[in-house]
Write a structure and sequence with these properties.
Elements (H helix, E strand, L loop, with lengths): L7 H15 L7 H14 L1 H14 L3 H8 L5 H17 L6 H13 L10
Helix pairs in contact: 1-3, 1-5, 2-3, 5-6
């Protein structure tokens, strides 16, 4: 499965998670910007901006996002989304643990097996 094959709802999940991870430390690093640009290239700039707009209006808080993410069952899509977001976190680790906490919750919720040390 590729990013382009994700459904609209799966793209919303990915976009929301990437946004949550990149804003967790209050700034966007060069590495994060490259990853975001890669997603923009994958989805098309106009479509990606529309996804960002939908994320902004759809999720008022972290709890709304968590509730949305709990409904995902497609294992292949979940692993692709998780891996993409994990790549983002590993590119710019945060000292406050915010993204790690989110990814730990996501791994448990989606039943994703995480190798030791991959979220450190």
């Amino acid at each position: 499965m590729t990013l382009k094959e994700l459904t609209h709802e799966q793209k919303i999940a990915l976009t929301a998670l990437v946004e949550a991870v990149t804003i967790s430390d209050g700034s966007v690093s060069d590495s994060e910007e490259r990853k975001i640009n890669r997603l923009m290239d994958e989805f098309g700039e106009e479509n990606f901006r529309a996804l960002l707009d939908e994320v902004e209006t759809r999720f008022e808080n972290r709890e709304d996002l968590y509730e949305f993410l709990e409904g995902f069952e497609n294992k292949e899509a979940c692993e692709l989304i998780y891996g993409t977001v994990m790549d983002e976190v590993m590119a710019s680790p945060s000292i406050d643990g915010g993204p790690t906490e989110l990814l730990d919750w996501l791994a448990v919720t989606w039943g994703i097996e995480v190798r030791e040390g991959s979220s450190e």
